[in-house]
Amino acid sequence: MRGKVDWVCDRLEEEYGAMEWRSHGEPLGALVATILSQHTSDRNSERAYDNLRRRFPTWDAVREAEEGEIADAIRAGGLADAKAPRIKAVLQQIYERRGETRLDFLAQMPTDEARAYLLGFHGVGPKTTACVMMFSLCRPVLPVDTHVFRVSHRLGLIQKRIGEAKAHDALERLVPPERVYPFHVHMIRHGRRVCHAQRPDCGRCVLRERCDFFSAAQDAAAGAATNAPATAAARKRAPQERETLHGLPPV
Ligand code: SF4
Questions:
Q1: Dist. CA 170–CA 65, nearest whole Å
Q2: Is the distance from the beta carbon of residue 207 to the nearest atom of ligand 1 less than 6 Å?
Q3: Within a 10 A sphere around the Cβ of 141, how many other Cβ atoms?
Q4: Are 183 and 177 in contact (CB under 8 A)?
Q5: Is 236 buried (19+), middle (13-18) or exposed (0-12) by CB count in 10 A?
Q6: pLDDT digits over 172-189, tens only?
Q7: Which of 11, 154, 212, 215 has most ligand 1 atoms within 8 Å of CB, for mutation?
Q8: Domains of the chain with bracketed CATH
Q9: Could you tell me the distance, in angstroms and rounded to a whole number, from the CA of residue 158 to the centre of ligand 1?
């Protein structure tokens, strides 16, 4: 299976280009941005994050603000009344543990320790933790969102029944540490542009040669339309538009 993962990474890199793994910002900012990105579009959560930073000059100012004030600042991101108390509570927990509202010290911690530290906060789950670890601290901890899960399952890298939570561990065992970041970003890009949730566009997919879903569909349809060769036009690389992930600023 590791050979297949390497093959998938190679094909996606050819299709979407090489990725440079650089930090998207300090860890506390990444944590708040990831909370804001839950159940909304990246565009909306980015606006909410920008508004929050404009309204409150420091994380201490956010921590000391009323929940209603925070909710007003992040309204553009949706679910503001649920996210505001969550953000305030996480900032308060950090302050109570450390005596300061910062997470920069995580950069000095071993990966497992830093991950356990983040998971210890009420309201911070495996995906949010993995986003902070990978996007901010550049550690090989793989976030599994709906696109990564769907495409991985269709390719046959993971079983659907294990669910998204366990898929973190299963995929992390398969993906070489140095490929975790490009794997995550490319799988999301592929899920958004080609391997759609409803009607995947297998005819222009560079992964179909080794895709379980495609081979099963091909067997079932016995030479139906999805068997047409991918044409140069269909395979043309999608434009590299500005794209954000989990509400974090693009590098
Ligand atoms: S062949 Fe189809 S199902 Fe498989 S990864 Fe590509 S688009 Fe998704």
A1: 40
A2: yes
A3: 24
A4: no
A5: exposed
A6: 999 999 999 999 999 999
A7: 154
A8: 2-19+143-227 (1.10.1670.10), 27-136 (1.10.340.30)
A9: 14
Ligand 1 contacts CB of residue 148 (under 6 A) = no
Render 166-209 in DSSP notation, one character per residue.
HHHHHHHHHS-GGGHHHHHHHHHHHHHHTS-SSS--GGG-TTGG
The tens-digit pLDDT sequence of the chain (251 residues) is 789 999 999 999 999 999 889 999 999 999 999 999 988 888 888 999 999 999 999 999 999 999 999 999 999 888 899 999 999 999 999 999 989 999 999 999 999 999 999 999 887 888 899 999 999 999 999 999 999 999 999 999 998 788 777 888 899 999 999 999 999 999 999 999 999 999 999 999 999 999 999 999 888 876 555 555 554 444 544 444 456 666 665 54
Is residue 8 within 6 Å of ligand 1 at its C-beta? no
Scan for tokens 């201490």, then name that residue. 60
Check if 87 has its Cβ closer than 6 Å to any atom of ligand 1. no
How far apart, in Å, are the Cα atoms of 12 and each of 5, 71, 83, 205, 220?
A: 11, 39, 34, 10, 26
Cβ-contact 181, 141 below 8 angstroms: no
What is this structure's pTM? Answer: 0.83
Cα(22) to centroid(ligand 1), Å: 29
Give the pLDDT score at 42: 81
Question: Dihedral of the CA atoms 26, 30, 32, 38 (nearest 10)?
Answer: 180
For residue 4, which of 226, 176, 218 has the smallest C-alpha distance? 176
